[in-house]
Structure formats: C-alpha cells, structure tokens
Amino acid sequence: MALERTLSIIKPDATKRNLTGKINAKFEEAGLRIVAQKRIHLTKAQVGKFYEVHAERPFYDELCDFMASEPVVVQVLEGEGAIAKNREVMGATNPADAAPGTIRAEFAQSVGENSVHGSDAPETAAAEIAYFFSGLELVG
Ligand code: ADP
Ligand code: MG
Q1: 44 C-alpha to center of ligand 1: Å?
Q2: Of all atoms in ligand 1, which is nearest to the CA of residue 93?
Q3: Is the CB of 111 within 6 Å of ligand 1?
Q4: Among positive and negative, which fits the CA dihedral 113, 91, 78, 24?
C-alpha cells in the first residue's frame, strides 16, 4: 500500500465541545500522522466552494451555515493507505450507522453535525489539501 495524504477537518460541533485532542488521538492511534494543522474560521463563501460538489443537495445551505458557524481545524493526515484508513476511523456519515469506536460513533451529534470531514479519493484529497495548505506548510 502506498504512502498517502488526506485532508481532514474537525468540524464546528467538535471544536465547540473541545474535542480536538480526543479526535487527534484517534488518528494517531490508527497510525495516521498529522503533518499539517491549523485552526481557522471559514466564511460561508469559503465553505460553499469547498463543498461545491454537494451544491444541488437539499442540505447544502444548512451544511455551509454549520461549517461557517464556529472555527474548524483543518489538517493533513499521512500514512499507508491514509485516505481509506481515515474514512474507517471516521465511521459512517450518519452516526447511527457508524461502527463502535469510530469518531462519529463516539462524538457526532447528527448526520449533519458529524464532527469530521475526510477526503474520499486520491483526486479529491489532492484538491482539498491544495485548497487549504501550501507545499511549504506540509512537513512529513
Ligand atoms: P461524508 O462526510 O461522510 O463524506 P457526504 O460527502 O455524503 O458525507 O456529505 C458531506 C457532509 O454533508 C456530511 O459529512 C454531513 O455533514 C452533511 N450531510 C450529508 N448528508 C446529510 C443529510 N442527509 N442531512 C444533513 N447533512 C448531511
Ligand atoms: Mg464526502
């Protein structure tokens, strides 16, 4: 399996409840290295562009408001098969379906306020990392 990098976001419901450290511990216990990280407060327009792929979905406006409501922590996770591994550690989108021990099973509040984002493929990971970080900010 190849060494990969993926974009992760700790969402407002989690930063608000002071869960950044507990969520980062889940990544590190799974062997994912946090090679870049910053706390930022996104504007609704910045979120809208990031989630452009969901623009036609009924929850898009609510999702953009939520993601701009409080600070988020954006980060790059690195490891063997990091994209799929992170999706495993995150758990299913709806916390009701998330496997025990996953971040969403333990921390998510609803299908919308589900604590974390993770890239879903190599192409989206590269584009999402470039949206938030310059090459100089990635220190493996
Ligand atoms: P994932 O984050 O697991 O990749 P999606 O890409 O399908 O899930 O959706 C992006 C985000 O949109 C979800 O993480 C969640 O915050 C929100 N979302 C997805 N489905 C719903 C829904 N049915 N109602 C409200 N928000 C949703
Ligand atoms: Mg997704």
Answers
A1: 16
A2: 3
A3: yes
A4: positive
The stretches in the chain having pLDDT less than 70 are none
Residue 125 burial (10 A CB sphere; 0-12, 13-18, 19+):
buried
Would you call 73 helix, strand, or coil by DSSP?
Answer: strand
Nearest to 41 by CA among 5, 79, 63, 15: 15
93 lines ligand 1 (CB under 6 A): yes
Q: How buried is residue 25: exposed, middle or buried, by Cβ count under 10 Å (0-12/13-18/19+)?
A: exposed
pLDDT of residue 109: 98
Distance 17 CA to ligand 2 centre (A): 22
Q: What is the pLDDT of residues 62-81, one digit of tens each?
A: 999 999 999 999 999 999 99
Rg (Cα) of the chain, in Å, rounded?
Answer: 14
Report the amino acid identity of residue 28.
E
What single string gives the DSSP state of each residue in 84-140?
Answer: HHHHHHH--SSGGGSPTTSHHHHH--SSSS-SEEE--SHHHHHHHHHHH--GGG---
